[in-house]
């Protein structure tokens, strides 16, 4: 990707947006972490359920032996470059505790995370919006036309569907 031709956007996922994404998943899928739902929702073009199933399968296959094997391979062959066609890194430092850092002012930090995404790295950070809703903000960089389409799809996916209301007449 040409770094000079990228648009940066930050997307907030509060309780309403997370609920809208989770409502698209079947109950048979079991519990999903916020990170799983948000990352698959943000990065995957197939149905949300399919992406979550793939992610859960990959996490199960990440055994201790597998990680050690990859570690040894990287020592033997050398660490691969991050900047390769098709690579994309998602960082989730939400549990690091940045928001609990005491700067001596007697208040918690409102936001203590990265300011923006890089061309191949997105960040998922905890955030409180102006209304006081607690949620996550995800920074992402994409080419302009891709970002436009991405925003449309994200709005469609996070739109809460009103339950069908049956109106009966007393006539």
How would you describe what is shown here?
With 171 residues, the protein is an alpha+beta fold. Helix content is 36%, strand content 16%. Strands 1-4-3-2 form a four-stranded mixed sheet. Helix 2 (34-43) packs across helix 3 (48-61). The longest helix has 15 residues, at 144-158. The protein starts with 6 loop residues before the first strand and ends in a 13-residue tail after the last helix.
Question: Brief description of this entry?
Answer:
By secondary structure, the chain is of the alpha+beta class.
H-E order: EHHHHEEEH
Major sheet attributes? 4 strands, mixed
What's the alpha carbon Rg, rounded to whole Å? 20 Å
Structural class: alpha+beta
Q: Strand content of the residues, in percent? A: 15-25%
Strand order across the largest sheet = 1-4-3-2
Mean pLDDT: 76
Looking at the structure, what is the overall shape?
A: globular
Number of helical segments? 5
Distance between the termini: 64 Å
| Helix fraction bin | 25-40%
Unreliable runs, pLDDT <50, ≥5 residues?
A: 163-169
The tally of strands reads 4
Strand and helix layout:
Layout: E1 7-13, H1 15-22, H2 34-43, H3 48-61, H4 64-77, E2 89-91, E3 121-128, E4 134-142, H5 144-158
Give me some keywords for this one:
single chain; 171 residues; alpha+beta; 4-stranded mixed β-sheet; 5 helices; 4 strands; globular; disordered C terminus
């Amino acid at each position: 990707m040409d770094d000079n031709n990228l648009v940066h956007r930050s997307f907030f996922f509060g309780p309403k947006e997370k609920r809208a994404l989770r409502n698209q998943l079947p109950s048979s899928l079991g519990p999903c972490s916020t990170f799983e739902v948000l990352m698959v929702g943000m990065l995957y073009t197939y149905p949300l359920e399919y992406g979550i199933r793939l992610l859960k399968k990959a996490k199960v296959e990440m055994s201790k032996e597998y990680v050690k094997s990859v570690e040894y391979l990287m020592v033997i062959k050398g660490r691969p470059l991050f900047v390769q066609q098709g690579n994309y890194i998602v960082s989730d430092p939400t549990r690091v505790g940045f928001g609990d850092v005491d700067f001596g002012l007697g208040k918690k930090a409102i936001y203590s995370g990265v300011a923006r995404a890089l061309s191949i790295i997105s960040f998922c950070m905890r955030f409180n919006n102006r209304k006081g809703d607690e949620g996550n903000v995800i920074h992402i960089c994409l080419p302009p036309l891709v970002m436009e389409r991405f925003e449309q799809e994200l709005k469609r996916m996070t739109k809460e569907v009103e339950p069908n209301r049956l109106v009966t007449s007393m006539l």
